[in-house]
Amino acid sequence: MPVETELAWAAGLFDGEGTLGAYPRKRLNGQKAIKWTIQARLAMVEHEPVRRFHEIVRVGTVNPRHIDKPNCRSQLEWQAGSNNVVRVLNKLMPYFVAKREQAELLLELVATFHRGRPLPAGLNERRISLAENIKSLKWRQC
Question: What is the 3-state secondary structure (H, E, C) of the chain?
Fold first, then answer.
């Protein structure tokens, strides 16, 4: 199968079944920290699509996910963090439909990260705003 077709398939699967998140880490004093956790996840009870997704994107990890609720089947979960999320989003971005806006916001957030440099005034508030926008898109009503 051509690479473009595989990437389009993976983007379609992630559009429907995947999640993106950006979470500020907490400091001891309860203030939101400058450091962030960036995640992408895809979990399904059907294991083969998750394995295929992982083969296509070539980053992240795949592990079983057990749900302790009656009548719930275990899932296979792919997940990636930080730089691997950026790699996956850059590969899949041309094919996203439902996750496009979330992915764009997440990439915008990651672009604000300054390792080892002082944080410009207002930047942490901008980051928090971007993360809240990403979260709000997860719960969009029909």
Answer: CCHHHHHHHHHHHHHHHEEEEEEEEECCCCCEEEEEEEEEEEEECCHHHHHHHHHHHCCCEEEEECCCCCCCCCEEEEEEEHHHHHHHHHHHHHHCCCCHHHHHHHHHHHHCCCCCCCCCCCHHHHHHHHHHHHHHHHCCCC
